[in-house]
Specification:
The chain has eleven helices and ten strands. The protein is of the alpha+beta class and 404 residues long.
Length: 404
Amino acid sequence: MTNTEPNTEPNTAKPSFDKHDPLAVDALLSEEELAVRDTVRRFCADNVAPHIADWFDRAELPGARDLAKQMGGLGLLGMHLDGYGCAGTSAVAYGLACLELEACDSGIRSLVSVQGSLAMFAIHRYGSEEQKREWLPRMAAGDAIGCFGLTEPDHGSDPGSMRTTARRDGADWILDGRKMWITNGSIADVAVVWARTDDGVRGFVVPTGSPGFSAPLMHRKMSLRASVTSELVLDGVRLPASAMLPGAAGLGAPLSCLNEARYGIVWGSVGAGRSALEAALDYAGTRVQFGRPIAGFQLTQAKLADMTLEIHKALLLALHLGRMKDAGTLRHEQVSFGKLNNVREALDVCRTARTVLGANGISLEYPVIRHMNNLESVLTYEGTVEMHTLVLGQAMTGIPAFRG
């Protein structure tokens, strides 16, 4: 029987398959978004990539303040915020920047995320006009570094049980407590610190030069080694009444800041996974065993295909959430969806890429083990796998299960 149906396929030449963009996602991005992405990619290639393995090996981020100033000059710090010297870009543009930063290293993206999505966002959303004018322009330029103090030694997933306190003493506040795992802490000029008061959880803008404030560096990390991670110690830190964030009352305020940071992680984790995938693809094409490149073996091709599927599905998810955020419709449960999926899949991609590289996969001559170790931290900060799973579980069932 002859098929008489007309051929509805457009008679146009299809573009060639791009192994670096197999789903042609670039076609979904605006010229401005592509320009932001390419600018950040070049910055990382020129200023970070040549040094990052050595920094990771030495567990240092030398010249962190100079690096922040360079990023400020590019408009990367608080780039998705409006006014006060901030670039005011779209959420998608910010996400693409996070992707490229983390394709270089998670610690570099963390510096930018904590500065913009935690410390600056808290001041921008909840601060007084005086606080905004004092800190945001300098932070946007990289002239002042910020950190965000919520997690404590005994309270991570349950910040509502924090022990850090702020008590009234006349017109002043007195802060006492400790915070842990604080990115940028030892180089920060200002810390946004959350404390328990008689009126509930409140946020405070704390200049790090305040008497009683210290931020000892944390050592012996096997992850995020090219990142400044600190403890914050507040021992009778006296602050004026104007130090309190007037718009932040209750635990919802710091959690909203975490949601901003989680959004950046949705994109950034894709960058780490993409870097590992590209390293595996390049290596497989040049590593010869049994007289042929290992890319020609079926098991290796299966790994490369599976890694490609997961990374580019994660990219589509990040882009979808970014478009929703720009439209003002993105919910926190959807951010949990993205963070849970994308970090988990990126980590699995890194582990698979490590097997493609064999013994070389554990060498810092390649980026794979560095990304893999970093993502072990990204998997649990800004909400563990368990917490984001339960957020989705509650959204699906209507039943909160956080307390067993």
